[in-house]
Design goal:
Blueprint: H1 4-60, E1 77-83, H2 93-110, E2 114-120, H3 122-130, E3 137-139, H4 148-163, E4 169-179, E5 182-191, H5 213-216, H6 226-300
Parallel strand pairs: 1-2, 1-4, 2-3
Antiparallel strand pairs: 4-5
């Protein structure tokens, strides 16, 4: 059995760790609220861009022959953008993105396609490098508070890779924010536009389902032609989609870290109780030993 001093030192160490985890939980909670506000402010604009791009694509009919809008004849190389964080201590937040991306890469290899990885966040970049899957480009240093300029840099790299023929399709993996204790891995197709998630009808759940189809869709006259407008909207669509993924990932990271630190604090409290009980038993054993020594000494006299 450990001595009282050893157990007391362990208790002090666990208490110090508990103070740190509680502080990190409070910081994550404050940052989470700001991240939620940024998501709420962005969603109407992002939904509008998606709706406008979908409607312009329907009006244009055949997608115009701009390089960014041309669908490649065959899909040989698939770009996979993994959006994770720069730091750890957030539970399975980073690892589940890496696992999903690596699993998707294996699926592409099984179909005789080459997976080209792009990483946002140091954890994603280092994990891919550790697995021997060197990313074609890495973007780090902004996972706590991404800006639109960061999203533009990533989108420009993805669009350039698509136009130059380095990739024939671009998919993005990120943690979608649902609640502080719930994040779900999402996979969306950005390019080509013909396969993009944006062309899928999301049902417009915010609209009243009792309205008929004609009242939900207004008559739109395009000036200039919808082809020209679509050519200008697609880069904005890619940028805003990446930016939305970054914000969702940031909120998910703060939520995951807050939950992980709360669990760590609770576990530290349980460990302190167990160590306190062990210290009391050690004290009782020492007192009993001292009494026995006194009694033995008295009998010897």
């Amino acid at each position: 059995m450990a001595s009282q001093r050893d157990v007391r030192n362990r208790i002090d160490a666990v208490k110090n760790i508990q103070k740190i985890t509680r502080a990190m939980e409070m910081v994550a909670a404050a940052r989470l609220r700001r991240a939620e506000q940024r998501i709420e402010a962005l969603r109407p604009y992002a939904d509008a861009i998606r709706r406008m791009t979908r409607e312009a694509s329907e009006a244009a009919g055949d997608v115009p022959s701009l390089p960014i809008l041309v669908e490649h004849e065959q899909t040989s190389n698939v770009g996979l953008l993994l959006v994770a964080g720069d730091r750890g201590l957030a539970g399975a937040f980073n690892s589940q993105i890496v696992r999903a991306g690596v699993r998707a890469g294996r699926d592409q290899s099984a179909e005789n396609r080459q997976a080209v990885y792009f990483a946002s966040g140091r954890r994603a970049a280092s994990s891919l490098t550790f697995r021997g899957l060197e990313p074609a480009a890495s973007f780090t240093g902004f996972s706590d508070r991404p800006s639109y300029a960061d999203a533009r840099d990533i989108a420009d790299k993805l669009m350039a890779a698509y136009v130059d023929g380095e990739v024939d399709q671009v998919d993005i993996f990120y943690n979608g924010y649902i609640s502080p204790i719930s994040q779900v891995v999402r996979r969306e197709t950005l390019l080509p536009l013909q396969r993009a998630t944006i062309l899928e009808d999301d049902g417009d759940s915010d609209e009243d389902s009792s309205e008929d189809e004609h009242s939900q869709r207004a008559l739109v006259e395009y000036e200039p032609d919808p082809e020209v407008i679509l050519g200008r909207l697609v880069p904005d669509y890619v940028e805003i989609s990446v930016y939305r993924a970054l914000l969702e990932s940031t909120a998910s990271e703060h939520g995951a870290r807050m939950t992980a630190m709360r669990n760590a604090s609770d576990n530290a409290g349980t460990l302190i109780e167990d160590l306190t009980l062990e210290m009391n038993r050690a004290r009782q054993a020492e007192i009993t030993q001292e009494i026995m020594e006194v009694v033995a000494g008295a009998e010897a006299l």
